[in-house]
Amino acid sequence: MYLDCVVDGQLCSALVDMGSTICLLRKGLLPRTAGPLPEDWTPTNTELLTVTGERTVMPGKKLLSVVVGMSQTSHKFWLADIRDECIVGLDLLAHWGARVDVPGAVLCLGNETVPLRSGWSHHGEAATPAATS
Q: I need a surface site. Which of 94, 97, 108, 133 has the fewest CB within 10 A?
């Protein structure tokens, strides 16, 4: 399921991944992150094993501001070559004391409920399933 969030001032569609223990940000989503690692990012030499079994390097990490609904915090994000714009992992969900209501398609943050989508969308646009024949 996906939610709209703002990471370091950039609107993004984030996969809520209960199987991930960290938060990930796609290379190139933020300015200057498509090429060599910017100086204000902490370099890492860590590999990520994706759900599809592929390995990808996570070249850096950085404490970034993240806003979901009315909740805002600073949290560590790892830069990686991933399909999704961003992945919100258990670390951030636990930090907020969040509860994912799958049948209701909402993320509960205290008294606030933030809508979730079942499909990826680009910057909050409605996701539409592909037609099959």
A: 133
